[in-house]
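Onboarding guide, step 5: your first structure request.
Type a short instruction followed by the sequence, for example:

Predict the 3D structure of this protein.
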Amino acid sequence: MGVALVRTWERKQAGVGAAVSCKRRDLLDLPLADFVRLAPEPAEAFAWVGDFVERQCIVRHDDLPYGTQLVPLVATENAPRDSKATVRACRRTRS
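The system replies with structure tokens like these:
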């Protein structure tokens, strides 16, 4: 799902897509070439999200308030570096 979310974000940035999403349609429309190109980055971002959640003292699934927000968090971490400046600034102010 993270790959589909990143792909729709890229398409929106390029002016080709209208919305950023990871619905069933987005997964089914995902070309193999885009999956192969994008898959390693969300995989690394999922590892970061796991560490982040653990640092927040969330160690059990029941402690996670909104499980559906993990994929958008992965996409945020996976955003291109120039888009991450705002995210990094927010992290520093919350640390």
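Each response can be followed by summary notes, for example: The first helix runs from residue 2 to 13.
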